Amino acid sequence: MTSFRTYTTILAVALAVALLAGGCGPNNRVVELENENTELWTRVQALEGRAAELETALQAARSESEEATARATALEDELADRASQIERLQAELERATTEEAAAPQVAISQPAVGEAGPVPAAPIAPAQAGASTSEGQEEQEVQEPQVAAAAAQRIAELEERLIAALANEANLRHETEELGAERDGLLAERDGLLAELELLQAQTRQLAGELESSATRHSVLVSQVQAVRESERAATERNQELEAQLTQRDGELEAQLAQYDELQERVSELERQREALEDDLNATAQERESLRLQLQDAQLRLGELEETSATLDEQLSMTRSQLERHRDRAGELTGRLSQLLEQQSSLERLSSEQELELQQVTEQLSRAQNEVAFLTDARGIYTVQPADSLSSIATFFYRNGNRWPDILEANAHLVDNPDLIFTGMVLVIPQ
Questions:
Q1: pLDDT tens digits for range 401-423
Q2: Residues 123, 328: contact at Cβ < 8 Å?
Q3: pLDDT tens for residues 2-27?
Q4: Contact at 8 Å (CB) between 366 and 425?
């Protein structure tokens, strides 16, 4: 830009000197000066055309930069969406892991020790430690396979969604590489424009030197150019217009150079964004590996839960079989006890064999009912005393006589009528 100003200044000074000097000179020197002026004007026009070409190239580069910026913005939005999707997958996998960890661990609790009766003939036997078979725990065990199946299905869905996220990640990486190649092309084009600008500046400096030589020749031939004063006045006006145009072009080119600097800064910003995208992709790969490890851990825990469920099912089946056997045994012993007590009431005295059998039946019945109480998680057992009723027994144990149906239900294998209990009968007292 400084070279253009130097050229116009020198040309204006030379023409002013020629106009002020006055006089006429040989026609051939006037022709030479006109030819030189025409040649210089032609070269100036060529420089103007080249400046216009540079302006067009800069506008094209700016347009390509805007397109690259738009694509980078789209990549950023897509990367944000993918990061959000990975976070949702991680949250869902954590919820699945939490649900599996919360699967019930069925433990067999020891029943409480029963309290003594109102007028006990035999002590309340304590419930032994073992597997709990309450109705709520049975329902919980039935639900465990369903929970495991649901967790397996959910893990499979998370695997599919994770594969999709990885494919999206590969696409983003490919687009990032294409953006880097486009950026390299813009940098190469920028270098070409800089080289052309340097060449243009060199030509301008050369033109300034030639104009300086022309001014020197004008000083020597000032006495010969007075005759062409009027024509040179027109040339002066033309040069003034040219100076104004060059000044305007100078401002426009400076603005374009400023825009070029902004474009270069934008390219640097795109480079930083690309590096940030690469960091995000690396973080995503680490998150993917973490999810894979968590998925393997969840699968192992699911297998352990399935094994535990099978073991509990087997124990439950064995417990039910034992309970039915002890209940049948208690029913048989209760019937035999009823027969012996009827014989005792009809006779004045039992024989020693009958008394021994009565004692053995009573002990065996207590043991059988103890087993039933243990397997059903009951409080214990109670031996019916004279004048006892299910209502009075419920009042003693629960402080609520209306709970006698609970006792009747717990001893349904012995009696189905609350009025048919008899002294010496051993009852299971539920919780």
A1: 999 999 999 999 999 899 989 99
A2: no
A3: 555 555 555 655 555 455 555 444 56
A4: no
Domain ranges of the chain: 2-109+142-310, 323-429
Neighbouring-strand partners of residue 427: 382
Q: Give per-residue burial for 83-106: e unless 16+ CB within 10 Å, then b.
A: eeebeebbeebeebbeebeebeeb
Q: Please, where are the H alpha helices in 2-134?
A: 2-21, 27-101
Q: Are 391 and 404 in contact (CB under 8 A)?
A: yes
* Separation between Cα atoms, residue 303 and residue 58, nearest integer Å: 66
Tokens 């109670």 locate to: 382
Ranges 125-134, 139-148, 318-327, most confident: 318-327
This prediction has a pTM of 0.32
The sign of the dihedral angle between the CA atoms of 198, 201, 206, 209 is negative
Pick from 329, 193, 318, 313: which is nearest to 261 by CA? 193
Q: Which of 425, 380, 386 is nearest to 111 (CA)?
A: 380
